[in-house]
Amino acid sequence: MLLWKEIRNRKCGGLKFRRQHPFQKLVLDFYCHELGLVIEVDGGIHDNPEVKERDINRTSELESVGLKVIRFRNEDVLNNMDKVLKSIIDFAET
Fold first, then answer.
1. Cβ 66 vs Cβ 35: under 8 Å
2. How far does Cα 45 stand from its chain's mean position?
3. What are the pLDDT digits (tens) for 2-54?
């Protein structure tokens, strides 16, 4: 995955991410334990109302245990990686 190439080995703001990290009954796309930060990358299927509802519930579940969640569209990762990486760093700094 393109995003993994850019964030692995502390390439993004010195943050350590894990890919496809199991958490409770979920698998997180990317997870930074240091910050409790979850990054989810969503494709077109996430436009489906049922999937949107599931995403909302998933985010709420993660936030209820103190994790922070940010989501990006596949299109953003493919077409605007610099903006995605800046958003991750900015989010981590808040």
1. no
2. 16
3. 899 999 999 999 999 999 999 999 999 999 999 999 999 988 676 777 878 89
Strand-by-strand arrangement of the 37-42 sheet: 18-23, 26-32, 37-42, 68-73
Q: Which two tokens stand for residue 34?
A: 């240091």
The two structure tokens encoding residue 17? 């991410």
**pTM, full prediction:** 0.90
CATH number at residue 75: 3.40.960.10
Can you give the residue range of the structural domain that contains 70?
2-93
Number of domains in the chain: 1
Q: Could you identify the residue written with the tokens 């103190």?
A: 66
Residues 6+ apart with CB under 8 A from 50: none
